[in-house]
Specification:
The chain is mainly alpha-helical. The chain has helices spanning 4-14, 16-30, 36-39, 50-60, 65-74, 79-91, 95-104, 116-134, 142-152, 189-196, 211-217, and strands spanning 169-172, 178-180, 184-187. Helices cover 54% and strands 5% of the residues. A hairpin with a 5-residue loop joins strand 1 (169-172) and strand 2. 35% of the residues are buried.
Length: 221
Amino acid sequence: MTDPELATDHSRKAGVWPVIHTERAELAADLGQLTAEQWETPSLCSGLTVREVLAHLTAGASLNTVRWLAGVIRCRFDFDKQVAMRLAEQLGTGPAETLERFRAVVPSRTKPPLPPIAMLGETIVHGEDIRNPLGIRRPYPIEVVTQVAEYYQGSDLVVVAKGRIGGLRLVATDGPFTTGSGPLVSGPTLALVMAMTGRATYCDDLDGDGVELLRSRCGTA
C-alpha cells in the first residue's frame, strides 16, 4: 500500500517542472525587447550583467550530473571557477544568441545534482536578479513563491539561506509563509525569498525589528 504522505510528496515534486518551465518562458518573454545597453545592465549578482546571469541559468538547465562532476574535476573542485566556465559556454556571440540559447532550454528537465525545487528557486531568484535592475515586475503566483520560501528556509544548498535567517522570525504579509523565532521580519513573500538568499536591496521592502540584522547578513549573492 502506498503511503499517502509519500504519494503527496511525489506529486508535489512532479509538479515543480511545469512551474519551472512557465517561469523560464515568462523570463524569456520579458527580455525579448531589451536594448544592447540594457543587456549590459549590472544584475543583483555582484560582478555579473543581466546577460551573464541569463547565460548562467541556461548553463544550469544544460548540465546533468555527469557533466557537472566532470566540470568540478576539471576545475579542481573550485566551484566558482566551474560556474564561470559554464556561464561562458552559454553566453554566445551577442545578446540575441544568449536569449536564443535560454529559450532553447525552457522545456528542459536537465539539471545538476540538485532537487527540482532548487532549480525553481534558481529560476525565481536569478530571474529577479535580472528583472529588478531593469525595472521589470513579475506578478508571481503566491503559491510558487511560497514553495520557494519554504525550500530556502530549510536549506543552505547552493546558496546560504537557512543560516542567514537563523534567530529571526519571518512572516509573509501576502501569503501563508512563516518560519523561525526571534526578531520579526515581515513583508511580501518574494522580498523574504530574495533577502534570505542574500539580496540586500529587498530588505527595503521588509519591516520589523529583525530587518537590519538580516540586511547585515546579506553579502555577495
